[in-house]
Amino acid sequence: MRFIATAIMILVGCAPQLETGVEEETVSEEDVIVEESSEDTEDTVEEEEPVEPEGSDIHGGSPTNVTWSECNQQVGSHPCDFSLVDQFGDTFTLYDNFATVMVIDFSTMWCSVCKNIAPDVQDFQDEYGPNGFLWVTVLIDNATGGDPTLEDIENWANTYGIETSPVLVGSRDMVDLTAQDGYPITSWPTLVVIDRDMNLAYGINGWNESVIRGWVEDTL
Questions:
Q1: Where are the chain's structural domains?
Q2: At 128, which helix (H) or strand (E)?
Q3: Largest Cα–Cα distance of the chain, in whole Å?
Q4: 101: enclosing H helix or E strand
């Protein structure tokens, strides 16, 4: 499926070279296990104060108690959860941001339209952020069409002055024209608006600022 805007002219974006096939990525977390000491031995374990990474307060609170069992990336559905690394080295998880209105901006570093709108991202965040809004940039390709690295997204955020809006390391695995295992991206950028109930409310292939602003204000 394609995202469409009824009775609205959608501006042209950058055409992607889509690859077929989606590989699943498993992110494993390292568990720290402290064994109980025996009765004859007393071990004192000093717990260190957790260090709050820089920038970690720019996204989400506690994970919500998700009540739905199915997800897909079609308008009107609950999008599937994902976890990606942001420009601060933190892990951004979509479902952690339940009750937040979000624009998910799927861009590439080689796309001229994406580069044109990137300077406005922080302005959007500053304007709507106090009302419970978050602009999330997901970079799918680096400047040469390969997978972006943490250094790539740090450079993107620094270049365009993005300070309190997450920029994430994405990949082509997030693209699926059936909208079942990924997003139906047919041009760059592709943007979706997610409402406070974690519903995918709107989607657009290409860029139209007035449309995005209208959707955000309507959803807020």
A1: 98-219
A2: helix 121-128
A3: 77
A4: strand 101-108
Give every CB contact of residue 20 below 8 A, 6+ residues apart in sequence. Answer: none
Kindly list the averaged pLDDT for each block of 10 residues, start to end, along the chain of length 220. 43 50 36 36 51 49 70 96 96 93 98 97 97 98 97 98 98 97 96 97 96 97
CATH of domain 98-219: 3.40.30.10
Q: What is the CA angle 97-110-148, rounded to 5?
A: 55
Residue 88 tokens read as 């601060």
Distances (CA, A) of 140 to 32, 54, 73, 123, 174: 32, 24, 16, 22, 8
Query: Can you give the pLDDT at residue 56?
Result: 45
pTM attached to this predicted model: 0.76
pLDDT of residue 30: 39
CB 202 within 8 A of CB 108: no
